[in-house]
Design a protein that fits this description.
This protein has 335 residues and is an alpha/beta fold. It is 48% helix and 17% strand. The protein is built from 15 helices and 10 strands. Helix 9 runs parallel beside helix 10.
Length: 335
């Protein structure tokens, strides 16, 4: 197992390193030659490791959650698609301009059900990340996702979207090709798709790039994913002119999955394997698959008008706030 990467994981990394040394064949051979049984020591360390992991990962700060959501080995959209769906067939291009590889989209089967799948893809190595623009889509990427979703709607098939981006592209090319208009068009079009839709935030859910694929009947989040209007570093730079205050900004943004659930922005937090999805992508994908099957079964049982009415009420419920009086008591609510 790879050594943990972050500062808050140091106690876990030390135990993993010690366990790895004890499990090494040469160490075991040396112990056997001396008549020493290492199994008891290994079992004790494994128990300590599990306890340390539960303690660390059960009490992560919003900034630590942000680091987890960005982990280099975290499963991306194509990993989830490969592990969850069958017969995936990718579609390229937006039929207007170009093919943006920051967005993947196509058709697949889930438990025998045909559906459309879209998602952001960051890329593993530097070459792929550059090709996919680090998961930050331009206009043609959002239009490709919409093209596939509308094609699915034409044939009455559900749409599943995986959200994992720091935000939409903000370079000159993106502006020239109309990225803002493309995001706005997706918001409008996804809100009235006449088929069941589910979005899953699997890593970073950042700004307009996230909500362009995040309008759905049900929105799910992995346990260590984040969802916010801006990255903590950007928020800190704007508010305090100091990116070093990103951890403070993360606290203020309420970007964790539990905060999003408490605010009514998502419908379910999908538990990750102990230590994060990157430690066991297959188990993480299995949890997402179970949640997808359950939510799709529920909303697929609704007729078209009920589906659209519920989605409308869901979207209209966002942004409810409480007015706090000088004494500290909430005095009113509104939208």
């Amino acid at each position: 197992m790879a050594v943990s990467a972050f500062e808050f994981e140091k106690p876990i990394a030390e135990l993993e390193e010690l366990l790895g040394a004890l499990r090494a064949p040469e160490k075991r051979a040396e112990a056997e030659a001396q008549g020493i049984d290492l199994d008891e020591a290994i079992a004790t360390l494994e128990g300590q490791l599990r306890q340390a992991m539960r303690q660390v990962y059960g009490h992560l700060t919003p900034w630590e959650k942000t680091l987890m959501a960005r982990h280099k080995d975290r499963p991306y959209s194509l990993d989830m698609i490969r592990l969850i769906f069958d017969d995936y067939m990718e579609i390229s291009g937006d039929r207007l301009c170009a093919n943006d590889e920051a967005i993947v989209a196509g058709f697949a089967h889930l438990a025998g059900m045909p559906l459309a799948v879209t998602g952001q893809q960051k890329g593993r190595d530097l070459k792929e990340r550059q090709r996919r623009n680090f998961g930050s889509a331009r206009a043609e990427g959002f239009r490709k996702a919409l093209r596939v979703a509308q094609l699915a709607a034409r044939f009455g098939k559900p749409v599943v979207s995986f959200v994992d981006t720091a935000g939409a592209a903000a370079d000159l090319r993106a502006e020239q090709h109309g990225v803002s208009e493309a995001i706005a068009r997706n918001l409008a079009a996804f809100s009235v798709l006449p088929v069941p839709t589910v979005a899953v935030v699997i890593g970073e859910g950042g700004s307009g790039g996230a909500i362009a694929l995040g309008v759905a009947d049900r929105v799910l989040m992995l346990e260590h994913a984040i969802y916010s209007v801006i990255a903590p570093e950007g928020c800190a730079a704007i508010l305090w002119h100091d990116k070093a205050k990103a951890a403070e900004a993360a606290d203020a943004l309420r970007l964790t999955a539990q905060s999003a659930l408490d605010l009514g922005l998502i419908d379910e937090v999908v538990c990750e394997p102990l230590g994060g999805a990157h430690r066991d992508p297959a188990a993480a994908a299995a949890a997402v698959r179970e949640a997808l099957e359950r939510h799709l079964a529920e909303i697929s049982a609704m007729d078209r008008q009920e589906l659209l009415d519920r989605r409308y009420r869901r979207l209209r419920s966002f942004g409810v706030f409480g007015a706090v009086a000088p004494g500290g008591d909430a005095s009113a609510e509104g939208e």
